[in-house]
Specification:
Layout: E1 4-5, H1 8-28, E2 34-40, H2 44-60, E3 63-69, H3 75-87, E4 93-96, H4 106-112, H5 124-132, H6 144-154, E5 164-168, H7 175-182, E6 190-194, H8 201-205, E7 210-213, E8 231-234, E9 238-241, E10 248-251, E11 264-265, H9 272-290
Parallel strand pairs: 1-11, 2-3, 2-4, 5-6, 5-7, 7-8, 8-11
Antiparallel strand pairs: 9-10
Helix pairs in contact: 1-9, 2-9, 6-9
Bound molecules: ligand LMY7XDAE.
Residues 48-49, 95-98, 120, 144-145, 173, 250, 268-270, 273-274, 276-277 line the site of the ligand Nc1nc2c(c(=O)[nH]1)N[C@@H](CN(C=O)c1ccc(C(=O)N[C@@H](CCC(=O)O)C(=O)O)cc1)CN2.
Length: 291
Amino acid sequence: MAAELLDGKAAAAAIKRELSGRVAALRERGVVPGLATVLVGDDPGSQWYVAGKHRDCAEVGIASIKRDLPESVTQEELEAVLDELNADPECTGYIVQLPLPKHIDTDRILERIDPGKDADGLHPTNLGRLVLNANRPIESPLPCTPRGVIELVERNGLSWNGKHVVVVGRGVTVGRPIGPLLTRREYNATVTLTHTGTRDLGAVLQQADVIVAAAGAEGIVRAEHVKPGAIVLDVGVSRKTDPETGRSRVVGDVDPAVADVAAWVSPNPGGVGPMTRALLLQNVVEMAERA
Ligand SMILES: Nc1nc2c(c(=O)[nH]1)N[C@@H](CN(C=O)c1ccc(C(=O)N[C@@H](CCC(=O)O)C(=O)O)cc1)CN2
């Protein structure tokens, strides 16, 4: 039987409709939320994601500011741009598009962001609050993709309570922060984080009620790894060029045959990607509401 689809486009559209009303209410109070993006270099994927963030802002009434910098930018020049955004009252939140070029120290850049303007929730203060505030609501921005994964499942009437979640990939935007989030009492999941050093990944995956595949390794999750009835979220992004058309397309971490075994799968594209974008807007709106 074919799995049901976790439609990220539909869920993201619903979130954006809700946010439009909240932005209108903020504007009535004279508060204009403004998201800035910092893009370094000319990677077409990153350019496409950043352009999408500006389109999303326009759709819900958030002002947006662009800072596009050449690949050759130095650490000091990039930090000066962040200092300027930290001081700019029209920028209420901002993101630095990742990945950054190899000559840039990404950790130092993330630490330079004012935690009160950290729309991605990746500043050490905000990641630390995610770990510390175990028994009270978190009043600081949370990483967008983990938030998007959680929302996508819940908006389809599914619960995390008591589920064994196996996450594949230990990157800073998904794998590392999703465990502290899903193990909070309100979600109550049990999380296993796997990575390239995990022995017998297939055997670990077979124990999962939910798989979150965020390794960026095409087709790493296959049908024989998946327990019948599991929920499978495909967060991985690899790009493949079609030899006939020369056009590039996104391929995920989940082999399409998984849909014959799982109960629910998120398509890729059209699953977690649009949710990441919607939850970024939600972070911006929440930060403006709290300010
Ligand atoms: N500063 C950040 N950098 C990066 C993040 C992040 O959350 N913060 N995540 C990813 C890229 N990303 C957002 O920035 C992102 C990835 C994918 C999508 C998306 O909507 N994808 C579409 C398909 C797109 C395509 O065809 O290329 C989909 O899934 O339907 C949005 C945002 C790394 N960097």
